[in-house]
Amino acid sequence: MSVAIITGSAGLIGAEATRSFSAQGLDVVGIDNDMRRYFFGEEASTVWSRQQLEASVAGYRHHDIDIRDQAALEAIFRIYGSHIALVLHTAAQPSHDWAARERFTDFTVNANGTLNLLEFTRGYAPEAVFIFTSTNKVYGDAPNHLPLVELETRWELDPSHPFSAAGIDETMSIDTTLHSLFGASKVAADILVQEYGRYFGMKTACFRGGCLTGPGHSGAQLHGFLAYLVKCAVTDTPYTVFGYKGKQVRDNIHSYDLVSAFWQFFQNPRSGEVYNIGGGRFSNCSMLEAIAITERLTGRPMQWSYSENNRIGDHIWWISDIRKMQAHYPGWSLTYNIGRIIAEIYEEQVARRASKGAS
What we know:
Elements: E1 3-7, H1 12-23, E2 27-31, H2 35-40, H3 47-56, E3 61-63, H4 70-80, E4 84-89, H5 96-101, H6 103-124, E5 129-135, E6 148-150, E7 155-157, H7 180-198, E8 203-209, E9 211-213, H8 225-235, E10 239-242, E11 249-254, H9 255-267, E12 273-277, E13 284-286, H10 287-298, E14 304-307, E15 317-318, H11 323-328, H12 338-358
Parallel strand pairs: 1-2, 1-4, 2-3, 4-5, 5-8, 8-12, 9-11, 10-14, 11-15
Antiparallel strand pairs: 6-7, 11-13
Helix pairs in contact: 1-9, 4-6, 6-7, 8-10, 8-12, 10-12
């Protein structure tokens, strides 16, 4: 019996990973207490996703546990012990704005929760692979100091800059930048994961994601911009663009492609590794471009407004350089571009709305 413990198992990445790793023959133990509902309200609840997993994934075992609860978490690790082959940590408080409201909650979920998981992995399953879903926000606002050029629908990096061709790589410093409190708590977790790899020799990796997305995302205003934007377009809900003229650029990676990267690492793990991971030059868009794509899908103008105030620590331009991941794991590649991603999210939102109307 090989066990995969997946935290945040009912979330976007956790649920994708649960289905994928189960299909590959692992017994999946999910840990998720629907904190997303607490963070962002009823609309962001992942209960529907948990119910889908319990109904469709054979042998899936769900535990409604807070990763800050050391006693409850340790009991899970004690049960499965050396059978644990993988710990995939996707649970988090994921919002800049929310972190500033409840600073202790943000830090203890993101930093202390990660420390708990690392320590119990080391104590009960030291040979297991530990994969952490980190974030590009560990770089703070350093990307905003790159030489950017304003185009008609987006900001772009000056073509003469070394990052222009493929995006931002792992050499960018995480120091002396404005991170937001969320970014700071994720830095703490990120460094811990690296340190347990380098100091204790564990098989650990930090995947520093850009925008992680897909049809399984319970998008909310404070997190999951693409899923939330499409949701607003389908339901005719007003949407607000915050700052940078709506030309801020994000690379977007589909949950399927991210979990495929996790699988590649799991098959041939390394210690204390770091990867920038996202859609790269293959899959990215500005806010204005995302709105235009969505309007073409719905066939009507979207209700949106503009606020001059950008979110603290937000990036003007982010495209991940994924060449390090591709060099280490040449069997991995991106399969979803931005048009395909938005179309799939749109179809899922339409289907959910029709289902609610029928019930």
